[in-house]
Predict the structure.
Amino acid sequence: MSAQPDHVPAPPQPPAPAAAARLLARIRADHDRGRAARWEPAFQRDWDKALEDSRVLYDLTPLHELIRTWQSRLDTAPAVDAFFAAGMDQEDGIAIEDIIGPRP
């Protein structure tokens, strides 16, 4: 008997070809909260690193993971804003890794 799983989970679908451009447009459009000035350079820095990693590895996985990470970040930003706007105390916060597990 083997300790190997019966099946291998299917890898996530790759993002659409223009997903990075759409993310950058979403970041640039967020002027009302002031995130655009901070997040655009961060996205560009992360993109450059993932692009270089992809070149070295001959694999698009770093770019796909970056897009998924930034999509999650942008999708959850309104909930984070609502949390802070409600005056919730964030001093006793929990690390996100404790909730969703470590990043792959």
In short: The radius of gyration is 17 Å.
